[in-house]
Amino acid sequence: MNSTVAVVGAHGHTARFVLTQLRALGLTPVPFGRGTALAFDGVAAVVNCAGPFADTAVPVAEAAVRAGAHYFDISAEQAVTMELLARFRDADVVVAPSVAFYGGLGDLLATAAMGDWPAADEIRIGTVLDSWLPTAGTRRTITRNAGRHVTYTGGQFVPPAEPSTVEWDFAAPIGERKLVELSTADQVTIAHHLRTPRITVHINTEPLADLGDPDTPPPAPADDLGRSAQTFHVEVEVRRGGERRGASASGRDIYAVTGPIVATAVTRVLDGGHTGARTAGQLGDPAGFLRALTPAHLTVNLASRCQVYPAS
Predict the structure, then answer these.
(1) Which pLDDT belongs to residue 299?
(2) Which Gene3D superfamilies would you find in this protein's record (predicted)?
(3) Residues 278 and 299 grouped into a single domain
(4) pLDDT of 203-221, one tens digit each?
(5) Spatial CB neighbours of 285, under 8 Å, sequence gap ≥ 6
(6) Residues 160 and 272 in one domain
(7) What is the structure's pLDDT at 310?
(8) Per the structure, how many domains does the chain have?
(9) Rounded CA gap, 43 and 50, in Å?
(10) CB within 8 A of 260, min separation 6: which ones?
(11) How far apart are CA 122 and CA 116, in angstroms?
(12) 162 shares a domain with 109
């Protein structure tokens, strides 16, 4: 099996974790800088880490497809993910955008929780971050994508209305938290393949305050793996009538965990059997995918139960 993987934007913050995990899984990453010509002859896959992806995703994906290489990216950008999933739906190779903390982890949890249900009435994601120390790339992406966000309701993407708030009763030790609605790539990746008329994502307000503060510093290494001290917890609730199913995952550093998520996706695709536009949840057995990330990168509960209700 050809194990060579081109990594575009290889000098970025998150790319360091991607390179490390590709090597850990026995693959051979080849770093590509932002100014490097997109010549992917002889590589099996391309992982695009060069944001903002509104500028890079389509040309890098097109170059990968022309070379017969599978394409992955770590974008959290809704509009870009929608475009790639539509443009490369019938590609002869896999085109998998948003295989990352945003867009990938929620999709994996939702798909695992959905299980054998053919459809659901609603899918909800609740996220708690203890902080958000944004990279320079995250700040550039926010500016580049201003005004391009959508929500998913009534089975279609629509411009966001006034963000809703909910009270989410998380598993201990987090407990009950007030969350605000957030537009993320998860709405796009989940809607691509799971049948449901409504997908919502909510997050606690503290990390959004960090994100909105221009003086918030970037992430700093706090362990031997280079991860920051940031922690995250994500719960997903899938509802059908009076029935509810749930799944959850906890870990450290939303940028660092993107490395093992996308590297694991690459190994699954290189094992064969997949083509076309796909999301992380469509790469076979999402529960097995999540278990492959434990315990080194995630703590996962695939039978969790959560309670969510509108905030008063």
Answers:
(1) 96
(2) NAD(P)-binding Rossmann-like Domain (3.40.50.720)
(3) no
(4) 999 999 999 999 999 999 9
(5) none
(6) no
(7) 56
(8) 2
(9) 18
(10) 17, 21, 293, 296, 297
(11) 15
(12) yes
Give the integer Cα–Cα distance in Å for 285 and 268. Answer: 10
**pLDDT tens-digit readout, 254-267:** 999 999 999 999 99
β-partners of residue 151 are: 158
Give the domain CATH number at 58.
3.40.50.720
Containing H/E element for 255? helix 254-270
Q: Is the CB of residue 151 less than 8 Å from the CB of residue 158? A: yes
Average pLDDT over residues 99-122: 97
Question: If we measure between CA atoms, which residue out of 287, 281, 285 comes closest to residue 304?
Answer: 287
Of the pLDDT bands very low, low, confident and very high (cuts 50, 70, 90), residue 312 is very low
Nearest to 98 by CA among 190, 165, 221, 222: 190
Same domain (yes/no): 161, 208: yes
Domain containing residue 131: CATH number = 3.30.360
pLDDT value for 255:
98
* 116 and 82 in a common domain: no
Q: What is the pTM of this model?
A: 0.95
Are 9 and 48 in contact by the 8 Å Cβ rule? The answer is yes
Domain that holds residue 219: 101-254+295-310
Co-location of 186 and 241 in the same domain = yes
Q: Report which residue type is found at 107.
A: D
Q: CA–CA separation, 37 vs 48, rounded Å?
A: 14
One domain, residues 114 and 234: yes
Element of type H or E holding 234: strand 231-240
CA distance 128 to 104: 16
pLDDT at 171: 85
For the stretch 29-38, pLDDT in tens is: 999 988 788 8
